[in-house]
Amino acid sequence: MKKLALLYLLVVISSSFLYAQDIETEKLKLNITVANKFYEGGNYNSAITSYIEIINNFNEIISDSLQFELNLRIATSFYLSGNFNKAIYYYSSCTNLYTNVSDTTQLIKLYRKIGISYRKLKLYEKSQHFYSIGLKLAYKTKEKKSIADIYISLGNLFREKSNYIKAKQYFERSIQIGREIKDTLNLAINYVNFAELAYLSNEYDSAIYYLEKSLKYQRFIDHKFLDSGTYLYLAKSYQKKGNYKSAEMYLNRTIQIETASYSPKRLITAFKLMSDIYQEQRKFEQANIYLQKYASLNDSILSEENKDNSILYESLQNLQHIENENKINKEKLSWHKIIYISVSIALFLLILIIILLIKNQVKIKTYTNEILKKNKQIVYQNEEIKQQNEEITQQNEELNTHKENLQELIDKKTKDLEIALKKAEESNRLKALFLKNISHEVRTPMNAIVGFAQLLSYNDNDPNYKYIEIIDKHINELLKLIDNIIEMSQIQAQQIKISTNYFLIKDLFDELYINSLQLREKKKKNHISIHFENIKNPQEKINSDKDKILIILYQLIENAIKYTEKGNIKLSYTKGNGEVIFKLVDTGIGIEREEISTIFESFVKIENSEKLYRGTGLGLSIVRNLVDILNGNILVESEVDKGTSFTISIPNIGQDKVV
Questions:
Q1: Cβ(170)–Cβ(162) below 8 Å
Q2: Fold match between 403-495 and 499-658?
Q3: CB-count burial class (<10 Å; 0-12, 13-18, 19+) for 26
């Protein structure tokens, strides 16, 4: 029960504190809404008073970002009401608060506003100083629009200082960025600025040209104030040129816009200018009408300004009174808060002490039970350790026995492996001897048959000549088959020896070319063009196994001649990066994409529905194995009915060796 009562007391205190905070927050929101209404309605003096009251009354619950926004509204209100000193003060306050605001563009705008305010006060050096700070920050963050805006402000500053050349330079920089980022408003404003410089330099035609150019851009934006100012300058320029009709037309447009939006200061200027235009035309009656409008509106504005000034003075007096009362109330409130916080801390500490005491009692009981449990566990673990020690002793004895048996087993297996190795070596020796003998025994009779067949083929008039030709052809195919089988057997038996030495690429190509022409003639395909790339350097050498490379390239050329019915066969090579690359391209029947992965397997042949191609399917398998033995790579690219290309890369070894 005691615990529940204390917990309930803590909840009540916390709820009361949160409820008080919620009420203050609602009051703050309501006050901000009222102040914003004054600001948006153009009642800047009332807005200033309201915003300052909010800051003073709700200072403790206002966040840094809200403090920034309120100070910015106050500064803008002073700026719009013409109190530039106060505007500078509050804009500066905003820059001090900026450390907690993440928008860099906003900070650049603040420096620009401070610069404009100093310009309004004719303090040009200070104005230029703040423009420079904003410009450096804009360049650092690459804010192009901000850079263009500051250039406009610098141009206005130098225009007021009558330095029209420098003013124009800044306007030109601004308009260049405006074109780059496609900022229509920037272009419209800058052309008005150019027009104003031209007007001040008595170049009225140029002023009219720039103003009309600005109007073209203003069609794409809704900016009545800019439209009105442009028309007013057009009227002034046409007045100076003596074109009163155009001047009256543009002045009427200015008056129409300013009457709708009720901007009295520009309206006064328009009435005065219209009166002057009529006087210059000696239309005194119309001039008098606009002069009366000018005087009436001017008196009205002066009385309103006086009234606003008196209201502002009263507001500032009230504000000072409110600030004094707030100081007294804050002192009283601080004492109440100290008492409230002290009581709250005391209650919290009391509750915390009670909770800690209860927790300690629970912990003591828990620790006691855990100690008893652990004692039991220790006794049980000791018994287990004793039992495990006995088991380990037994296992060690068994392990020693197994160790002795294992050594005997290892010795026996070693002897068996040595015997097996000797048998394998003997088997390889016998296999190599067999391959050598079979090569000799098969080739000897076959060579005799080939020789006699060639002798018989020399007599063209023999009636059996065509049969002798067939015998000769098939004997050559049989010899080729035997060579391939023996070569493949040697590869599989790992009886291939690699002997590398330096040789001329030209010698390799010459030998291949002669063999290729002979093969083409035997296959009766003299219509196929065989082209070997010219050797640029006849003395160029490579270091590899010439015989194996000759076999690889000959097998590929033989395949190309077999599967090419028309077109050509080309062999080229390149050398570099420690390797030699041979490329053979034909215009044969090509290979299906799904068959490319299988063409290097033994006894695999390319099938064709239109023609039967003879062969065992060992040639490309031998090529792949020899390339692998030479530590090379082979790449195949093919397209059906268009041809095939084989790219073989062989390492160019640095010194002679036999493997």
A1: no
A2: no
A3: exposed
Work out the average pLDDT over 41-68: 84
User: Does position 264 have pLDDT exceeding 80, yes or no?
Assistant: no
Segment 576-600 mean pLDDT: 88
**Which residue(s) pair with 332 in the sheet?**
none
Q: Give CA separation, 110 vs 73, 82, 128, 156, 174, in Å.
A: 12, 17, 14, 17, 19
Residue 320 corresponds to which tokens in the numbers above?
Answer: 């000072």
The closest alpha carbon to 45, from 326, 301, 225, 306, belongs to 306
With a pLDDT cut of 90, the percent of the chain lying above it is 24
32, amino acid identity: I
What is the sign, positive or negative, of the torsion defined by CA atoms of 542, 546, 551, 557? positive
129: nearest Cα among 109, 154, 107, 147: 154
The model's confidence at residue 443, banded by pLDDT at 50, 70 and 90, is low
Pairing of strands 529-532, 568-576: parallel
In sequence order, which residues have a C-beta less than 8 Å from that of residue 159 and are 6 or more positions away?
A: 167, 193, 196, 197, 200
Q: Higher confidence at residue 530 or residue 356?
A: 530
Q: Which of 302, 303, 293, 296 is nearest to 273 (CA)?
A: 293
What share of the chain has pLDDT > 70, as a percent? 77
Residues in the chain: 659
b/e map 574-605, b = 16+ CB within 10 Å:
eeeeebbbbbbbbbbbbbeeeeeeebbeeeee
Q: Which DSSP helix (H) or strand (E) runs through 575?
A: strand 568-576
CA 650 from centroid of its chain's CA atoms: 41
Q: Which CATH number fits domain 403-495: 1.10.287, 1.10.150, 1.10.8, 3.30.870?
A: 1.10.287
Q: Is the dihedral of CA 292, 298, 301, 307 positive or negative?
A: negative
pTM (predicted TM-score): 0.46
pLDDT tens digits, one per residue of 144-198: 999 999 999 999 999 999 999 999 999 999 999 999 999 999 998 999 999 999 9
The domain made up of 499-658 has a fold known as: Heat Shock Protein 90 (3.30.565)
- pLDDT confidence bin for 512, thresholds 50/70/90: very high
User: What residues contact residue 537 under an 8 Å CB cut-off, 6+ apart?
Assistant: none
Domain ranges of the chain: 403-495, 499-658
pLDDT of residue 12: 45
Cα–Cα distance measured from residue 189 to residue 308, given in angstroms and rounded to the nearest whole number: 31
Q: Any idea what the Cα angle at residue 199 is, between residues 194 and 205, rounded to 5°?
A: 85
